Each structure stands twice: as C-alpha cells, then as structure tokens.
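[09:14] KT: can someone run the structure on this one? pasting the chain below
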Amino acid sequence: MKNSQENLESLIEAINELLNEVRKEQITENKNAEKRHKACMQNLSKLREYNKIADMTNQIFEKRISNIENALQKILKSETK
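[09:31] RB: done, structure tokens below
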C-alpha cells in the first residue's frame, strides 16, 4: 500500500512538473504571438500609409495626363482649322 502511494505521489509530481512546463511554454508562445501581431499591425499601418501616398500620386498624375491630353486636343483642333 505504501509503495503504491509513493508511486502515485511520484506520478502526481511528474504530472505537475509537466503541467508547469506546458504553462511556461504557453506563456512564451503567447508573448511571441503578441510580438508577431504587433509587428504585423505595424507593417499593415505602413502599407496603408504607402497606399494613401500611392493614391495621391496617382491622382496627381491623372490630372497631369488629363491636362496634357486637353492641351494636345486643343493643338490638334487649332491645326485642323
């Protein structure tokens, strides 16, 4: 009886050690996941900012191209008259 009690206690102790290791591993994984999430959110923010800049640049170029097209059409109209 005493031997089986000691075996149970040693098994319980081993299980507790494993549980503690699992808890530590979960904490580490959670911290790593938070770091990755933060980095991803920063990258997403930079991409959004880049897209806004690209959109503004495209709008400027579209206006310039439109002005050039209008100027060319005026030149063509004046030459055909």
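[09:33] KT: thanks! DSSP finds one helix and no strands in the chain.
[09:34] RB: yep, looked fine to me
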